[in-house]
Design a protein that fits this description.
The protein is of the alpha+beta class. Helices cover about 45% and strands about 20% of the residues.
């Protein structure tokens, strides 16, 4: 099944993220349309050897399967990271602009935690970087 694309929502989300960038309220912004949420978070973490803590309980109340939440390549999902000091201003801006959003977790120092699953970012990064060369050898 090919994920649908709501052009009006995509335009709105892109415009709002640009507005947050112009206001200097976000540290990073990454699209989830290639690989989904978990791949996007890992690729973002790999760049600076950071980690993240993610709570996935919200998918249960929305009747979304965990695999769909983590790996779904649906459009118009952008992960932003912000300074905690800017959280209220960012939330207000998103609400004023009627932009759907959800707080997923927080950035950590080198550890990845998804619910009760824990891993070290350096080990995951090494496996990620070695996967294609192993496949081609």
């Amino acid at each position: 099944l090919v994920p649908g694309l709501d052009l009006e929502l995509e335009k709105k989300v892109q415009s709002i993220v640009r507005g947050l960038i112009q206001k200097r309220l976000i540290k990073s912004a990454n699209d989830c349309s290639l690989g989904g949420l978990l791949v996007t978070l890992c690729e973002s973490a790999f760049q600076n050897d950071l980690g993240f803590k993610l709570q996935t309980t919200s998918h249960q109340q929305d009747n979304i399967r965990l695999d769909s939440m983590l790996f779904g390549e649906s459009q118009s999902r952008i992960i932003i990271s912000i300074d905690k000091n800017n959280q209220q201003e960012v939330e207000n801006y998103l609400k004023e602009n009627d932009c759907p959003c959800q707080i997923l977790g927080e950035v950590t120092n080198g550890q990845i935690k998804i619910n009760e699953i824990k891993s070290n970012i350096k080990e995951l990064k090494e496996n990620w970087e070695a996967a294609l060369p192993k496949l081609l050898s």
